[in-house]
Amino acid sequence: MQEYELKYGCNPNQKPARIYMEGKDLPIKVLNGRAGYINFLDAFNGWQLVRELKKATGLPAAASFKHVSPAGAAVGLPLSDVEKKIYWVEDMDMEFTPLANAYIRARGADRMSSFGDFISLSDVCDKSTALVIKREVSDGVIAPGYTDEALAILKEKKKGAYCVIEIDPDYEPDPIEHKEVFGIVFEQGRNELQIDDAFFSNIVTENKELTQQAKIDLAIAMITLKYTQSNSVCYVKGGQAIGIGAGQQSRIHCTRLAGNKADNWWLRQSPQVLGLQFADGIRRADRDNAIDLYIGEDYMDVLADGEWEKIFKVKPEIFTAEEKRAWLDQNTDVALGSDAFFPFGDNIERAHKSGVKYVAEPGGSIRDDHVIETCNKYGMVMSFTGLRLFHH
């Protein structure tokens, strides 16, 4: 198959649409459903991301993509009981395989953004991972293969229309890539940069104690950023992205956006949120929406009389700003990556509020001294990688 016809392009009015290769077969098989233009953009970017995560960490990896940027990315580490609860999988009677754990983590980092995602898996999709995917609102999945049981489960999703793509794990693209904009062809060498332990060897802060887990988390951050629309910043903890800020023109806005997502991930684990008593029959997506409002500034949208009764069995107490700050102060050892240099120390000040201890960025700002000084103020470890990771 050298080409695949799409229903339409980015939008329904953009026809005709297809993907194709000149003189070569496409390295994919569509096993079920029909993939669209944006589906394939998410699938191919996501596949590259998880393939590199697997290579860098040796662990199965998963990514949850929306609109050509990851909403979440993670490797297959075990889930705690609290994580199973906040990711809505504590009721699942199954084997929590490493690949299933990777997707549960990737999906759970920012469930609001992951709603309707396209999934990328580094390994052959097993039954457990398929069972997790089956219960989530998702557009499709790409993986190097599927077990018979997994494929049968996925084919039942969306009344049989769920998109399932198999990619050749041995496929390697040409070293030169092309893109057309306004009828003009752009050409560049592919970004083949390999991110490993040596990537973080240039530590410029007073604190130089970069733990092995921090190296893994920074690698996850930087590989994630490599496939995130720039400007981009990524917070990571314990083998998963917990806050991704994509496509912001200002880096401080990007740092704030990603930091707010990281804060929401941590607040979901607070006693106040874990103790919420939801009404019987409420859907997971509605629970996610309610939690997002409850921990935010618009909490009265779900706590007002006449509203809370639709969501909760018992009216929750207000989660005060002081209580939230006290809980957020308990989050520590977070890693932070940036796809380009931080121009001012205000980014580090914001990162500190979300528990960041480890930072990786290219360096090269005329204010590097101020950024380093701000890191030193908080005892952070910062590596200058010397390499930018813009992605457009």
List the helices and strands and how they pair.
Layout: E1 3-5, E2 18-20, E3 28-32, H1 37-57, E4 61-66, E5 69-75, H2 81-86, H3 98-108, H4 111-114, E6 117-121, H5 127-134, E7 138-143, H6 148-155, E8 163-167, E9 176-181, E10 184-189, H7 212-226, E11 232-237, E12 240-246, H8 251-267, H9 271-274, H10 284-294, H11 300-303, H12 321-328, E13 334-338, H13 346-352, E14 356-361, H14 368-377, E15 381-384
Parallel strand pairs: 6-7, 7-8, 13-14, 14-15
Antiparallel strand pairs: 1-2, 3-8, 4-5, 4-6, 9-10, 11-12, 11-13
Helix pairs in contact: 1-7, 3-5, 5-6, 8-13
Could you explain how this protein is built, in words?
This protein is an alpha/beta fold. It folds into three domains: 3-167, 3-Layer(aba) Sandwich (Cytidine Deaminase, domain 2); 176-267 and 328-384, Cytidine Deaminase, domain 2 (3-Layer(aba) Sandwich); 271-318, Helix Hairpins, CATH 1.10.287. 34% of the residues lie in helices and 20% in strands. It contains 14 helices and 15 strands. The strands form four sheets. It has a six-stranded mixed β-sheet with strand order 3-8-7-6-4-5. Strands 12-11-13-14-15 form a five-stranded mixed β-sheet, with helices on both faces. Helix 1 runs antiparallel to helix 7, helix 5 (127-134) runs parallel beside helix 6 and helix 8 (251-267) runs parallel beside helix 13. The longest helix is centred in the N-terminal third of the chain and has 21 residues, at 37-57. The model has no long low-confidence stretch (mean pLDDT 95).
Q: What attributes characterize this protein structure?
A:
about 35% helix, globular, Helix Hairpins, Cytidine Deaminase, domain 2, about 400 residues, 3 domains
